[in-house]
Design brief:
7-stranded mixed β-sheet; alpha/beta; Spore Coat Polysaccharide Biosynthesis Protein SpsA, Chain A; about 250 residues; about 25% helix
């Protein structure tokens, strides 16, 4: 299994904090956001590599970061998607496709947003996901209040935990269950990414792919407990810094 950490965004909503620093390297208390992700994946069974996709602006910074993790159990590879500004960024799905295509990914792929911060282990998620091959499984979190769900992808599940609806940033959310930037793509599903891009010409958000996919075949959701933060704004970053692992 390969782990892909998405870290190619430019974090414009977090300026000036990330003007010259990748969002994934912002510190939250004792370590950076991406180091929390490494902590989650380092002991996962069948882990073969960790791939970090970033952009040309931040690639050297991530190279330096990776050099400080030479003792990590598996190889950490930094992938430069070649973009230089927010205007020419590939988007989440563009970056996922770039990695699958150019690095010949042919194994299960666990995808995690480099700006996701959560405290529940990943083992139960993977155990659930591997019961549903060849179908994709996504991480979900109950934000408790529908009014707060408006800025996320909102999900509904049937009793088998299969998605029955997915709405991106709805004005009137049907539930408070939202999609984290956390996905398990079984190896047999990887070819669907290129098909999605060909059909839709949309490369921006991974949520749009899930919205397209669940209408064609089963997609399953796993509910995470504990704390979760999407570091998408200065306010959410401050909240996480004040409350996560204190």
């Amino acid at each position: 299994m390969n782990v892909l950490i998405l870290a190619a965004g430019y974090g414009t909503r977090l300026y000036p904090l990330v003007r010259d620093t990748p969002k994934a390297l912002l510190p939250v208390n004792s370590k950076s956001l991406i180091d929390y992700v490494l902590e989650k994946v380092q002991h996962l069974p069948q882990l073969s590599s960790v791939l970090v996709v970033t952009n040309n602006k931040f690639c050297k910074i991530f190279d330096h970061w990776a050099q400080g993790h030479r003792n990590f159990p598996v190889k950490i590879e930094i992938i430069n998607d070649g973009t230089n500004t927010p205007a020419d960024r590939l988007g989440s799905m563009g970056d996922i496709n770039y990695v699958i295509k150019n690095h010949q990914i042919a194994d299960d792929l666990l995808i995690i947003g480099g700006d996701n911060l959560f405290d529940e282990p990943l083992e139960d998620f993977l155990q659930f996901a591997r019961k549903n091959p060849p179908f994709v499984t996504i991480g979900l979190y109950d934000i408790k209040e529908k009014s707060k769900a408006k800025i996320f992808g909102v999900v509904e599940l049937d009793p088998t935990h299969r998605l029955i609806s997915f709405e991106e940033k709805p004005s009137q959310p049907k539930s408070s269950l939202i999609a984290m930037c956390l996905y398990f793509y079984p190896r047999a599903s990887l070819g669907l990414v290129a098909r999605y891009l060909l059909d839709t010409q949309r490369t921006d958000t991974a949520g749009d792919y899930i919205k397209w996919l669940y209408q064609k075949e089963p997609v399953y959701g796993f509910k995470f407990q504990g704390k979760w933060y999407d570091i998408g704004s200065v306010e959410s970053y401050k909240e996480a810094s004040e409350n996560f692992r204190k």
